[in-house]
Amino acid sequence: MFFSIIIPFKDGGYREKYLENCVDSLCQQTFTDFEAIFVHDDSEKLQNIISESGLKASVINMNESDTLSDYRNIGIEKAKGEYVIFLDSDDYLHPNALVYANEMIKENENQNDVFKFGIAKTNLDKISTLSKSKRAFFEGESFSKIEEILRDVSIDVDKKKVKQIINGLFEKQMINHKFNNIKPSRYLQDLNYQFRVHSFIIRRKFLTDNYLYFKSSNNLYGDIPFLIELYNKTESIKQTTTKLYYKYIHNDTINDPSLTQEEHNDRLLMRMSALNEGLNYCYDLRLARKLKLSAINYYLYKVVKSSIFSESYSELEKIYKKLNSILNRPSTEFTLSKRHDYEISAIKKGKFKKAYYLSKARVLGYKTYQFSKPKNQRFRQKKIQKNIFTKLPIKDNTILYESFLGKNYSDSPKSIFKYLLENEPNKWKHIWVLNNKELVEKEPEFKNNNVKIINRFSWKYFYYVTVSKYFVLNMRQPKWLYKKAEQVILSTWHGTPLKRLVFDMENVTSANRNYKKDFYNQSRNWDYLIAANKYSENIFESAFMYPRENILTYGYPRNDILTNHTEEYKKQIKEQLGLPSSKKVILYAPTWRDDEFHSVGNYKFKLQIDLDQLRKEVGKEYVIALRMHYFISDNMDLKGYEGFAYDFSKYNDINDLYIASDMLITDYSSVFFDYAILRKPILFYTYDLDKYQNMLRGFYIDVNKELPGPLLLSNDEVIESIKNINKVNEEYKNKYEEFYKKFCYLEDGNASKRVVKTVFGEKLGD
Ligand code: C2G
């Protein structure tokens, strides 16, 4: 037996879902001379996954009180292989990992006992494991590109067939990539001391000869002393430059935290203890210096900022004692800056109280310094919000509104505002968060003395978010917002979901690792959440983990106008927008793509509609109104299309565009749920359907069955459908009706009224 792979699985209930990946990756190994040893906490699921996979594995059952270190020690004890590999149960190996490990060992076996896999961080997104150039072929535009090429050379092929071929190629590419397409490894000598044992490959005899085992006292950081001892006993470690160990990055710290993301009260003390314990086995004075510096930095930047530091001196003292022991160990020299040295020397001498006051003063001094730095305006605003504004009385009759982060005056906040202004004209003070005042220059409501406009993140914003009784918004409030119990946040959200959201999304391609956690914390502060229909209510409960009893399933306030407007209003809007009265209007309103962006929050969009062809074929009857999603930062260049194509991406309220238009083209945007209220034709231009559905988001409904219009994959198909729109209407009549019944049944034009009654009614409505 050449390799023994040790996989501990502890406190694993919710981690079970990653196991399959891990087991799969062992089944797929192209080098098969290995044994897998799973050490687990009596998980039935683990046993099932292994037996279903057909993997030959030893399975060792442990007691609840055993630590992760005990698990690994048992694994070492049972191992029969020449080399032991440490794999975590939520991670996985490249199918050729063992081939390269074997190759690396064979080349270096006389000099080395310890080896390592290079680590790739992953969130399991299939396509992201392909190289950039390979990815390009399968992404986004490839299908229309191939179509275009074939059209240019007059080759007529069945489009569906081409799609199928591309899909097949992709699958094959994934397999090839996994099994064959990997560059030969080179090996590194110099390691950046890593203190986590996963990805290590260690000669078993080296472990037994040196009595190397995991110290069981430390459940969280048992691998620190183990690795320190190991580093002391080995001259060099070889590592594959190719990344063969896939470390899974958890993006859901609420439901699936990794071990390092889990909350542990004594995490700080455990880490300090592990470093202290590790120093018992450290004879290399340069490594000892590194460990000391690591402990010092941990104290200076982590411990002093923790709640233990500010709340519990007795707990802090335990940490001081460990650090004191660490500081008094031998090591090579190092110097610290003066102000750090005061604190650290005091700890070294055992003068903990003195160190505590010095550290406290440093943190305070740092905060004061931060507070006064000219560029730290935001920091000052947050501090003053939390410490001063929250102490001021709440303004009971003030309502703050924000739509799409202050970008426009629109959506449900606008409808609720207008309803209150009309029906309770003197009761409320209304504050609108709007970054560009010019947007509402012509709106009569803003002439009212009770209505005020403020900029997002201005001083007034920080003030009003803290003292307004109500905050009505359609996205999320800022993370730093400290909400008082008397305040009411009404979240209107901004659409019936088609694309999977937050906790229903496996991978979060576009957002950072804390996205789910942040979303969870922010939405806990919503007192109410509006849903347009029962379908949305169900989704919000799972996708936001939001309590059903606080969901107001009333229909969307923003849609009242779609039910209530007159023909005259349509005419008026068309005129205001500068659209020719003699022509019908096609509205094109696509959504954004998680993987196409310039920078954080600035998304790209490449128009896939051929305006020349469209104008040529339907220009006599129609004009086109283009409306990009609010995340898209690219500006459209419509030079040469004057009188035919119009860009309304910066226009305030998409409702006006719905009303002014005669037909909608969209893709995966929630706009069609609202547009269907108008019972006007809807076409779906879904040129990248596969990627969007399978790689990026996934959908809540079966788009092939439930949509109220056709899915179109090419520009030609779009034009054909526009030309034959009556036929399309006839074809989709029944589906449209069913769709309306499921999603639009609450839209009777009175949603704002219902919301106002519930949220603003009782306490102040008397
Ligand atoms: N919107 C718009 N113009 C577009 C697309 C969207 O004005 N071209 C507005 C519509 O009001 C739409 C809302 O933004 O309902 C949400 O847009 P989506 O495209 O559905 O995408 P997203 O912002 O990701 O929201 O539950 C709905 C989801 O949250 C989707």
From TrEMBL:
CDD domains: Glyco_tranf_GTA_type (cd00761). Residues 4-131 form the Glycosyltransferase 2-like domain. Keywords: Cell membrane, Coiled coil, Membrane, Teichoic acid biosynthesis, Transferase. GO terms for biological process: teichoic acid biosynthetic process. One of its GO terms (molecular function) is CDP-glycerol glycerophosphotransferase activity. Belongs to the CDP-glycerol glycerophosphotransferase family. This is CDP-glycerol glycerophosphotransferase family protein. The lineage of its organism: Bacteria, Bacillati, Bacillota, Bacilli, Bacillales.
